Amino acid sequence: MLRITLSIILLFAATAATVADAAWYKKTDNTIVDPIQYTSGGTFPGGDHPYSGNNLNTGGNLTGADLIEAELTDAKLMHATLADATLSDANLTDANLSDADLTLADLTRADLTGADLIDAILTGANLSLANLPGADLTGADLAGADLGWADLTGATLTNAELGSAWMPSVDLAGADLSGSDLSSVLNYDGTTWTDAFYYTDNEPIWHSGMDAAWRTSEGILALAPTSTVPEPSTLLLALLGLALLPRKRRR
User: What is the pTM of this model?
Assistant: First the structure.
């Protein structure tokens, strides 16, 4: 009887320790998901994710974290360090990863639909087969990243650094390329550029093979800069000035 009771106590203690060690993540609305879950329909059976390192939050140190197939929708990870982290098949839909360090991170097949990656460091990251429709990569550093077969439809790549990025068969339909550095991208064979665009006052730095004729044939659009709407105070002054103009007398 004593042995059975002791076994139950040890089992309970082990279970409690496992639950205590499980990590949580904070969402952009500041709610906590505790513990982190596996994505549904993945390789693993679902339920609690075994990751037990630092909690996922703004500015967190998550270097080398193993978050394969983690469910991280709306994660709040601004300024977080995720260098060398494993995020393959993770769900990061609408996550905020602005200014995050994802150097050499494995994001293979990760879902980053609508994610905020403004000024993120993705140097050497593996984004092959990743989903990034509508993601904002303004100012992101993608130098040396693997983007093969990734979906970047409608993504914003304004002023992004793509030096030595591997880009075969990437879908860039409708993407904003304004100011991006494409001068040394590697192997962009099969990439879709239909309706990708840039503003003529912020033209990309083109690869030597991306001359005007090629851009036209690929369906890349050169758009005039968008007109700015006057500030209300400026508009009011302009209307006042018009009102004070001398009117012609009727004869």
Answer: 0.83
